[in-house]
C-alpha cells in the first residue's frame, strides 16, 4: 500500500506542477494588470486544441510545438489587452467580469463550432511509457510535462527579476503612479504582461494536451481549477501559484486514495473554502 | 463488424424479410397502409453534444439510415432530431418542443436521466416514448402508460453479464481469483453498480468482489482510481464506463502496469466504440463487454449493415445503431398496425407489439405490462484487431473468447 500511495503522490505532484504553470498565467495577469481573466481556462483549451491540431495535421510533438503555441497565445494575449481589455482596466470590476465572461463564452462556442463536441486527445508514441525509479513507477509523459512546466516557471521568475522589462512590469504592479512618473509606457507593459500570462497558458495547454483530453466544456473547468489554485496560493503571487498547483494536485490524489475517488474534485473546493476562512489572502499572498 | 460471415442482403431482401415478419404477425392484407404523404413524425432525442456526444452521434448515424429502410417496408417515417446536449433540463425542454412541433412519437434518449425527464413530458402530453437505450430500472417502474423500452434494465444487463462471465471462464478453462469493480458514478453507472452489488452475491460467481470504486466520468484523469484498483491485487477488472472514460482507465492501467487477466464490462458502452480502438490501438484488444448486441446472422441486420456501411464507410456498426433503428421500427410498426399516425392510436397499438424479425440478438420484441421488452438477450463481445466480435453465445459467435488476455507488453 505504501508504494501504491507513493506512486499516486508522485503522480499528483507532477500533474500539479503543470496545473501550476496554467495558474501562474492568471496570477501574473492579475498581479500586474489587476484584471481577473475569466477566460483563462478557455484560453488553455484553445492552446490544447492548437497542440492537438499540430500533432494531428503536422505530426508535431506537443513538447516541440510548445514554443509556437506559447508565441501564438502571447500574440493573442497582447492583442486582447491592447484592443479589448485596456479600455476596461479603469472601469468597475463587474464590467471587466462581464467582458471576460463574454470572451469565454465566445471561445467555448467557437471551439464547439470548429472542433465539434467530441473529446480530442493526443497519443504521443511514448504515451504509455513509465520509468522505474526504485519501487516507484513514474509516468514519462507526466515527468516530461512537469519538468517543462518547472523550467518555464523558473524562466518566468528570472525574467521578472533579472530583465529590464520584467523589472518595469513589477514597477507597474508595485506603484502605478510612480511607474507613470518615471515615464514607463504602462499600456504597452500591460499588454506585454497579458501576453506573458497568455504564453504561460499556451505552454501549459500544450503540456496538458498530453495528459488530458480537450473538449469545448474543458474551458470552464480549467478556469475553475486555475482560480482554486491561485486563491489557495495567493492571488498575484507567483510562488503561491506554484504551491497551490502542487497542493491541489497532491490533495486530489490523497482524497481519491483515502476517501472516495469521486470526491477528489470536491476536496479541492473544500480546501478553497478552508483557505478563504482561515487565510483569505492565500498561503503566500500578502495581507492588505 | 465487416467480418460477418452471413451474406449481405439488399434492400429488396430487407423488404422481403419485413414482409415475412409482417406475415408472421398476421398483418398481411388486414393492415391498413399509411398514406404515402403521411409519414409518422418521430421526434428523436439524443445527446449530440456534450460528454455523451460520441454515443449520441453513433445513435444518430443509425437513425439517419432508418427512414429509407422503413419506407421500403411500407412504414414511412419523418425524423425530427433534437440535441439533449447531455443535459437533463435540455432533454425535457427539447421533448416539449418536439411535441409542440408535431412529433407523434418520441424516441430516445440514450441516457437514463435524460430519458426519465423525457418520459415525464410524454406522460403528461399523452405522446408515446419508445426508448432506444437507457437501463435505469425505475424508468419502467413508475407506472408510466406511454413508455416502452426495447433495452434491458440494469439488473437484467448485470445478471446476464455476470452469467456470461461464467460461460467465458467455463469455455476457456481459466477462472480469476478476485475482482475489483470500477464504475462511472453517473445515473447509468450508479444503477449498474447497484445491480452488481445486489445481484453478485446471489449468482454464485466463482470469484469474490474485493472492492467497488466509483469515479467521476468527467474527472481530468483517473490515475488514482486505477492505482487504488491495482492495490487490491485483483486479477479481474469489472468496468462500467459511460463514454470515453474507459480510454482513460485502460491508459492508466498500461502506465501503472496493472495487468489483470481481463477487463470485462458487465454491460455498458465504451469499450466497443470507434474512439476506443482509435486511441488505444493494440491496448484496446481483448477487452470484453457483455451486452445486447446486433445479431450478425439475421437478414434485417445485414440489410441495416449494408445501408449503414454505404452511408458511413468509416464508422463502426455497433449496438447504438441497432437499438436506435429498432426503436424507430417499433414506432413505425405500431403506426402501421394502428393505420394512423395519431399519437393516441400509436399508443394503443404499442402494447401489443410483436416483431419477430429484427436486428438485435434476442426473441421477438414484445412489451410486458410495464412497457418493458423482456426478450432482450446479452452476448459477449471481445475486441480483436480494433473491432468487436461476438464470442458468446456460441450459436451466433464470430470468434472464440480469449481469456486470460495477453499482457500489455506482450502485444505485437
Automatic annotation (TrEMBL), chain A:
Membrane topology: Multi-pass membrane protein
Transmembrane residue ranges: 12-33, 64-85, 97-116, 141-160, 189-212, 224-250, 257-278
One Pfam family recorded for the sequence: BPD_transp_2
Domain of life per record: Bacteria
Record localization: Cell membrane
GO molecular function, one term: transmembrane transporter activity
Keywords of this entry: Amino-acid transport, Cell membrane, Membrane, Transmembrane, Transmembrane helix, Transport
Keyword Protein biosynthesis: no
CDD domains: TM_PBP1_LivH_like
Family of this protein: Belongs to the binding-protein-dependent transport system permease family. LivHM subfamily.
Entry-linked PANTHER family: AMINO ACID ABC TRANSPORTER PERMEASE PROTEIN, BRANCHED-CHAIN AMINO ACID TRANSPORT SYSTEM PERMEASE PROTEIN LIVH
Listed name of the protein: Branched chain amino acid ABC transporter permease
Provenance organism: Paramagnetospirillum caucaseum
Highest classification ranks of the organism: Bacteria, Pseudomonadati, Pseudomonadota, Alphaproteobacteria, Rhodospirillales
TrEMBL record, chain B:
Domain of life: Bacteria
Gene3D superfamilies in UniProt: 3.40.50.2300
Coiled coil: none
UniProt keyword annotations, A-Z: Amino-acid transport, Signal, Transport
CDD domains named among the record's database cross-references: PBP1_ABC_ligand_binding-like
Entries under SUPFAM superfamilies matching the protein: Periplasmic binding protein-like I
Record GO biological process: amino acid transport
Pfam families to which the protein is assigned, alphabetical: Peripla_BP_6
TM ranges: none
Family matches, as InterPro entries: BCAA_transport, Leu-bd, Peripla_BP_I, TAT_signal
Family under the similarity heading: Belongs to the leucine-binding protein family.
UniProt-recorded name of the protein: ABC-type branched-chain amino acid transport system protein
Amino acid at each position: 500500500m505504501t508504494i501504491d500511495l507513493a506512486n499516486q503522490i508522485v503522480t499528483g505532484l507532477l500533474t500539479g506542477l503543470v496545473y501550476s504553470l496554467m495558474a501562474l498565467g492568471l496570477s501574473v495577469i492579475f498581479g500586474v494588470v489587476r484584471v481577473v481573466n475569466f477566460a483563462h481556462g478557455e484560453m488553455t483549451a484553445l492552446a490544447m486544441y492548437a497542440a492537438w491540431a499540430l500533432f494531428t495535421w503536422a505530426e508535431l510533438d506537443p513538447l516541440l510545438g510548445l514554443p509556437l503555441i506559447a508565441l501564438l497565445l502571447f500574440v493573442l494575449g497582447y492583442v486582447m489587452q491592447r484592443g479589448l481589455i485596456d479600455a476596461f482596466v479603469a472601469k468597475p470590476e463587474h464590467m471587466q467580469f462581464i467582458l471576460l465572461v463574454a470572451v469565454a463564452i465566445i471561445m467555448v462556442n467557437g471551439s464547439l463550432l470548429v472542433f465539434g463536441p467530441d473529446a480530442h486527445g493526443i497519443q504521443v508514441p511514448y504515451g504509455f511509457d513509465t520509468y522505474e525509479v526504485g519501487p516507484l513507477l513514474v509516468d514519462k509523459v507526466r515527468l516530461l510535462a512537469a519538468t517543462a512546466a518547472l523550467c518555464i516557471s523558473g524562466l518566468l521568475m528570472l525574467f521578472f527579476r533579472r530583465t529590464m522589462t520584467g523589472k518595469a512590469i513589477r514597477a507597474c504592479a508595485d506603484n502605478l503612479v510612480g511607474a507613470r512618473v518615471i515615464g514607463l509606457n504602462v499600456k504597452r507593459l500591460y499588454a506585454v504582461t497579458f501576453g506573458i500570462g497568455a504564453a504561460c497558458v499556451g505552454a501549459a495547454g500544450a503540456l496538458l494536451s498530453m495528459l488530458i483530453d480537450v473538449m469545448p466544456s474543458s474551458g470552464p473547468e480549467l478556469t475553475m481549477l486555475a482560480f482554486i489554485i491561485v486563491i489557495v496560493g495567493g492571488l498575484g503571487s507567483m510562488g503561491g501559484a506554484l504551491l497551490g498547483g502542487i497542493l491541489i494536485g497532491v490533495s486530489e490524489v490523497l482524497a481519491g486514495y483515502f476517501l472516495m475517488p469521486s470526491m477528489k474534485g470536491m476536496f479541492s473546493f473544500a480546501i478553497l473554502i478552508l483557505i478563504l476562512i482561515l487565510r483569505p489572502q492565500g498561503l503566500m499572498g500578502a495581507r492588505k | 463488424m465487416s467480418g460477418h460471415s452471413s451474406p449481405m442482403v439488399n434492400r429488396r431482401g430487407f423488404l422481403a424479410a419485413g414482409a415475412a415478419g409482417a406475415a408472421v404477425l398476421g398483418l398481411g392484407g388486414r393492415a391498413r397502409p399509411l398514406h404515402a404523404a403521411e409519414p409518422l413524425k418521430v421526434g428523436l432525442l439524443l445527446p449530440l453534444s456534450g460528454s455523451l456526444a460520441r454515443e449520441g452521434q453513433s445513435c444518430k448515424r443509425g437513425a439517419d439510415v432508418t427512414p429509407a429502410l422503413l419506407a421500403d417496408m411500407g412504414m414511412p417515417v419523418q425524423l425530427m432530431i433534437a440535441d439533449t446536449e447531455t443535459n437533463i433540463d435540455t432533454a425535457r425542454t427539447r421533448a416539449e418542443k418536439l411535441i409542440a412541433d408535431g412529433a407523434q412519437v418520441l424516441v430516445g434518449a440514450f441516457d437514463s436521466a435524460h430519458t426519465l425527464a423525457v418520459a415525464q413530458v410524454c406522460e403528461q402530453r399523452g405522446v408515446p416514448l419508445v426508448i432506444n437505450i437507457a437501463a435505469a430500472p425505475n424508468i419502467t417502474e413508475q407506472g408510466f402508460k406511454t413508455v416502452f423500452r426495447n433495452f434491458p434494465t440494469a439488473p437484467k444487463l448485470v445478471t446476464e453479464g455476470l452469467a456470461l462471465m461464467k460461460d467465458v471462464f467455463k469455455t476457456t478453462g481459466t477462472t480469476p481469483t478476485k475482482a475489483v469493480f470500477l464504475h462511472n458514478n453517473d445515473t447509468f453507472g450508479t444503477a449498474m453498480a447497484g445491480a452488481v452489488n445486489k445481484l453478485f452475491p446471489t449468482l454464485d460467481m466463482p470469484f469474490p468482489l474485493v472492492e467497488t470504486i466509483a469515479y467521476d466520468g468527467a474527472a481530468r484523469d483517473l490515475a488514482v482510481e486505477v492505482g487504488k484498483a491495482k492495490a487490491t491485487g485483483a486479477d479481474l477488472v469489472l468496468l462500467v464506463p459511460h463514454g470515453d472514460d474507459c480510454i482513460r482507465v485502460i491508459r492508466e492501467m498500461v502506465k501503472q502496469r496493472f495487468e489483470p487477466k481481463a477487463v470485462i464490462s458487465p454491460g455498458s458502452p465504451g469499450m466497443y466504440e470507434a474512439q476506443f480502438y482509435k486511441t488505444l490501438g493494440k491496448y484496446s484488444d481483448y477487452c470484453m463487454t457483455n451486452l445486447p448486441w446486433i445479431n450478425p446472422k439475421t437478414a434485417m441486420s445485414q440489410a441495416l449493415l449494408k445501408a449503414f456501411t454505404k452511408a458511413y464507410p468509416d464508422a463502426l456498426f455497433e449496438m447504438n445503431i441497432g437499438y436506435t433503428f429498432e426503436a424507430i421500427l417499433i414506432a413505425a410498426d405500431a403506426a402501421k398496425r394502428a393505420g394512423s399516425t395519431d399519437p393516441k392510436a400509436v399508443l394503443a397499438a404499442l402494447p401489443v407489439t410483436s416483431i419477430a424479425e429484427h436486428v438485435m440478438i434476442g426473441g421477438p420484441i414484445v412489451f410486458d405490462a410495464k412497457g418493458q421488452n423482456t426478450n432482450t438477450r446479452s452476448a459477449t463481445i471481445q475486441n480483436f484487431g480494433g473491432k468487436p466480435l461476438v464470442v458468446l453465445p456460441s450459436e451466433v459467435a464470430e470468434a472464440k473468447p480469449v481469456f486470460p488476455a495477453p499482457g500489455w507488453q506482450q502485444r505485437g
